[in-house]
From TrEMBL:
GO terms for biological process: positive regulation of translational elongation; positive regulation of translational termination. Signal peptide: none annotated. The keyword RNA-binding applies. One of its GO terms (cellular component) is cytoplasm. It is found in: Cytoplasm. It comes from Lingula anatina (Brachiopod). Residues 86-157 form the Translation initiation factor 5A C-terminal domain. SUPFAM superfamilies: Nucleic acid-binding proteins (SSF50249), Translation proteins SH3-like domain (SSF50104). Belongs to the eIF-5A family. eIF-5A seems to be the only eukaryotic protein to have a hypusine residue which is a post-translational modification of a lysine by the addition of a butylamino group. This is Eukaryotic translation initiation factor 5A.
Amino acid sequence: MADEFHDEEFHQAGSGASQTYPMQCSALRKNGHVMLKGKPCKIVDMSTSKTGKHGHAKVHLVGLDIFTGKKYEDICPSTHNMEVPNVSRKDYQLVDLTDDGFLSLMEDDGNTRDDLKLPENDTNLAAEIKEKWKKDEETFMITVLSSMGTDMPVAIKVDSSKKV
């Protein structure tokens, strides 16, 4: 009877729980982050209504998707929890820029990553990265924003600590 299950395979799947954490709606703040319509957003406006006859003050949230800039809105009772995404920023040194738009980035420990493309939604940043790379005068750092399993370049700056 034990042999009946011998050929089965079990796969682990992540719960995704580490990508977000709960926070009471009344504790959210402007310029903070929140999940709106399943997207990680930066809160750009919020207002709280008075307690009504149904007993809960409502919080009206307006946020911009941190990757696309698209505007999302939601209303939540102030005592309820909303999911807040874990958002991190990391600087990488720009090592190479390929013809097809992939960035070769190096971490402080010397490890490289070649899986990020020039940002498509921010053409100004993409153009600035291309222009500075063509000049090849200084060392540049690319700031990468990471959240919900997505990484995207969001800024470029001259690394004054390392001269070429």
